[in-house]
Amino acid sequence: MKKSLLIIVSLFIAVTSIFAGEGTGFHWPKEIVKDKTTVTLYQPQYDSFNNNILEGRMALSVKIKDQELIFGALWFKARLATDLEERTAVIENLDIERVYFPGIEDTTKIEKFSRLLTEEVESWDVVMSLDRLIASLKEVEDMKSLSENLNNTPPDIYFRTSPSVLISIDGEAKLKEIEGAGFKYVVNTPFFIVKDSKGKYYIKGGKFWYVSNQVSSGYKHTEKVPSDIEKFAAGNLQDGEMDSISMSITEAPELIVVTKASELVSTDGEPDYASIEGTGLLYVSNSSEDIVMDINTQQHFVLIAGRWYASKSLNDGDWKFVEPKDLPEDFSKIPEDSDMGNVRASVPGTPEAEEALLEQSVPQTATVDRKTTTVEVQWDGDPKFEKIEGTDVAVAKNTDKTVLLIKKKYYCVDDAIWFVADKPTGPWVVSDVRPDEVDQIPPESEAYNVKYVYIYESTPEVVYVGYLPGYNYSYVYGGTVVYGTGYNYRPWYGAYYYPRPVTYGFGVHYNPWTGWGFSVGFSFGWVGWGFHPYGRAMWGPRGYHRGYRHGYNRGYHHGYNRGYSRGARAGYAAGSRNSNVYKNRGGGVKTADRTRPAQGNKNLNKKARPSTKPNNVYTDKKGNVYQRDKSGNWENKNNKATRPSQKPATKPNQKPTQKPGQKPATKPSQRPANQPSQKPGQKPARQPQTRPSTGQNQRPSSGMSNQQKQNLNRSHQNRSTGTQNYNRSRSSGYSGGSRGGGASRGGGGGRRR
After folding, report:
1. Contact residues for 741 (Cβ-Cβ < 8 A; gap 6+)
2. 564 in Cβ contact with 518 (< 8 Å)
3. Strand 394-396 and strand 402-406: pairing?
4. For a surface tag, which of 161, 330, 365, 586 has the fewest beta carbons within 10 Å of its beta carbon?
5. Does residue 39 sit within a domain?
């Protein structure tokens, strides 16, 4: 009885995973049933991804009642809308370019199937798991864009074996009078530092107060704080609740106050080394930082902002940057499930590094309403611009927005949207042009990140836009992802302080499951944005973000609590929704999750349903169809080994009538991202076919070459990886977050708890 009940429950779970909302939207294959004909479409395989235009192919099968099952392939082009926070992708404006049934000579039948597919499939907005999409993109060549001339000079690295906090001041301390208070505060830091009328400096962090006669050194724990300063702190700091480990700390941490690029590496007592199985490497187990020692060379390696630095000694080490390609060979042998498995994303050539690179190529997209979307630019005095050396671009200095002067036009990038005006004071309208000169901006400029903001196409009503993780300071270097350019940008001081993006000082880590996040002293409630007058954080458009739920957590509990988790509960400056900067705006900006029904677009316009068939049919680039069995063997599913009497069918010229509001009138374009795709309202000419020809003189192959087999095995592996990642996301309770531009899946990360 128990066994029968278990079987019933298992079947119920399996069925509901397919037909419940989320499963329905993401399940492959999918079926269309019409006029006694069942068409099964298998998971797409991709050929190119340029800007937000995705091109690929799908294997398919057609079954007419009482007739033999036949197989084919279709090629498509579509616009990709993404929500990196929700880990979903929507293939919209799908345009079927060719349909091919290898071996079928009946042109009437081919035309009938082609018309059915065109009428049904082109009305879809296909919702996919982003994890599956990214895994499949491994088949697309040249996806790994390179960020050049980044600065990898080591910051000052401090090592401590007792509780310590790094307090970063953005250059020489700048003091600002608090009106009517009788004391001043340090404006160019996110920490709470005030100076009283007697010349003493006070720092508040969590439940601790410190005092010193100097702004950058000599701080001691104190319980004697002037009442007016204590009252001011109580009214302006956003401490939030204290976690249990924070409450248990009775000894005030040491303060290390710095005014230039620095990082803190700490251990809970003297370093405790543990071996990494299958390698000649050790790791420091009692640290929240990634510290590895190579036994062969006795070198210590520490991972900071995605960059490896090496030194013989942890204490006062002479740290040098290590090119990713020069890491010891054993780094690539670190087991995926080990306590140090997370660092594999920062080791070139590993699957984790490959996936991180592919993440860099997927944009966050949105649709911007021209009429209702605008921006206000506030200036600290008269607008001031400074020429960016080696370019035809000048950048504004005295505003918190990124404003560029190019050919007597003013361009503002705010929340990854391009705006344009004839004057620096506006009025500003949504731009449908991204100036070519933007690509000249070097990483030495604080405006470098706007190179990663694109305009894909436009209509008289809307502009389709997107940004890559580079906008949020995530870049590609040496086959890995790194955070920040490494350059120290000069902030603006006037009536206001406008900080610029920083790379070091806040313990930025990359986790393959949660993306970039910060981990510096936050469990003590250290950061105090509440009393600062500026609205732009030192980390740019995204502000502070701690990752999805747990953030950077390899299991070591002090690292966990001092890391993202504390900052998340304190509610500082962001929260998970802020990982998608388009969600900072109102209804005039639509993201993928705002343009589809909840839970995965349940039934694809009610025209498709999940299929119970296994997702094991593939097509090669010539249109031959193959099925993979459980043993890994491939069966050619071409319908007949005879010469086709015609070229593969192109899409019928007569298209079904478009319903009002069904989709935009324009089709995706392949034009460069720095120009509008077409004149408003003008439909672009169909692009010439670029697929390999399968004309009359080519016989469908009955066998399979080694190269074909390798390609199909690769497609199968990528599809399997994507499914595993998707299932892992769901099983770990994932409900939001984005990598690169924020956080992604819940869970992941090692076991040092």
Report:
1. 84, 364, 467, 469, 471, 472, 474, 515, 542, 579, 580, 581
2. yes
3. antiparallel
4. 586
5. yes
CA distance 550 to 566: 10
Find how far residue 129's CA is from the centre of its chain.
Answer: 14
Place of tokens 């990982």: 579
Q: What share of the chain is helix, strand, coil (3-state, %, to 5)?
A: 20, 30, 50
Q: Which two tokens stand for residue 212?
A: 């010193």
H helices, E strands: number in the chain: 11, 44
In this prediction, the residues of the chain whose per-residue pLDDT falls under 70 are 1-26, 139-146, 237-249, 512-514, 519-579, 593-608, 640-703, 724-753
- Collect all residues with Cβ–Cβ distance below 8 Å to 14 and sequence separation of at least 6: none
* Cα(556)–Cα(608) distance, integer angstroms: 47
Q: What is the pLDDT of residues 408-419, one digit of tens each?
A: 999 999 999 999
Residues present in the chain in total: 753
Measured in degrees and rounded to the nearest 5, phi and psi for residue 22 equal -65, -45
How big is the chain by its Cα radius of gyration, in Å? 28
Whole-structure pTM value = 0.74
- The 10s digit of each residue's pLDDT in 530-577 is 455 444 445 544 443 332 222 233 333 333 333 333 333 333 333 333
Q: Which of 364, 329, 309 is nearest to 590 (CA)?
A: 364
For residue 441, what are the CA distances in angstroms to 30, 423, 438, 491, 671? 45, 22, 6, 18, 21
* Strand, coil or helix: 527: strand
pLDDT attached to residue 732:
44
Rounded to the nearest 5°, which phi and psi values hold at 195?
-120, 125
pLDDT at 357 (0 to 100): 86
Residue 586 lies in a domain: no
Collapsed DSSP state (helix, strand, coil) of residue 578: helix
| Residue (of 339, 137, 335) closest to 748 by Cα position | 339
Instruction: From 233, 212, 217, 221, select the one nearest 163 (Cα to Cα).
Output: 221
Q: E strands within 357-447?
A: 364-369, 385-387, 394-396, 402-406, 409-414, 417-421, 429-430
Instruction: Provide the pLDDT for residue 102.
Output: 87
Alpha carbons 106 and 74: distance in angstroms, whole number: 17
β-strands 515-517, 589-591: how paired? unpaired
Q: How many CB atoms lie within 10 A of CB 261?
A: 20
Residue 513 confidence (pLDDT)? 64
Residue 26: both structure tokens together: 């993401």
Annotate 241-310 with DSSP letters as a single string: PPPHHHHH--SPPEEEEESSSEEEEE-SSS--EEE-TTSSEEEETT-SSEEEEETTTTEEEEEETTEEEE
Whether 718 contacts 712, CB under 8 Å:
no
What amino acid is encoded at 191 in this protein? F
Last residue of a domain, one of 443, 460, 477: 460
Q: End of a domain among 404, 439, 460?
A: 460
Which distant-in-sequence residues (6+ apart) come within 8 Å of 345 by Cβ? 352, 353, 355, 356, 480, 481, 510, 511, 512
CA dist., res. 308 & res. 497, Å (int): 32
Supply angle C-alpha 512, 516, 517, rounded to 5.
120
Asked if residues 143 and 47 have their Cβ atoms less than 8 Å apart, the reply is no
Indicate the number of domains in the chain. Answer: 2
> What domain range is 117 assigned to?
2-144+597-731
Fill in the amino acid letter for 332.
S
Does any domain span residue 469? no
CA–CA separation, 220 and 203 (whole Å): 10
- Asked, for residue 13, whether it belongs to a domain, the answer is yes
Q: 641 is written with which tokens?
A: 């080994």
Helices (H), 305-381: 351-359
Position 506 scores a pLDDT of: 84
537 secondary structure, DSSP code: B
* CA distances from residue 516 to 483, 489, 740, 742 in whole angstroms, order as listed: 8, 21, 6, 6
In angstroms, the CA 555 to CA 733 distance is 18
